[in-house]
Write a structure and sequence with these properties.
This protein is α+β, with helices and mostly antiparallel strands and 93 residues long. 12% of the residues lie in helices and 25% in strands. A 4-stranded mixed β-sheet has the order 5-2-1-6, with helices on one face. The protein starts with a strand and ends in an 18-residue tail after the last strand.
């Protein structure tokens, strides 16, 4: 039985905006370990579910999809967003 993770994307560290952080993602747990390819040396496996990421507008929609498809799943809570209130003048203290 496939196992899935449901989580909310964290904010990208390279950007100041919060684009797409309100979406929830369902992705499958790896079914087999990755092995190096003998010819190229790149890591890979025969598990194609590793390439699938489904996006949902709400957590409830992602859970409903997993239950409807008979997937075992774990919900990872969204990371707490911390505001760092800082003024420009604080740079010169």
């Amino acid at each position: 039985m496939p196992t899935a993770r449901i989580y909310q994307r964290p904010k990208n560290a390279m950007q100041s905006g919060k684009y797409r952080t309100d979406r929830w993602v369902l992705e499958f747990e790896p079914a087999e370990a990755k092995k190096p390819d003998p010819l190229t040396g790149w890591a890979g496996s025969g598990d194609t579910r590793d390439q699938v990421r489904l996006g949902f507008p709400t957590r409830e929609a992602a859970i409903a999809y997993a239950e409807r498809e008979g997937l075992a799943f774990t919900v990872i809570p969204a990371p707490e967003r911390k505001l760092k209130l800082q003024a420009y003048a604080d740079n010169f203290r």
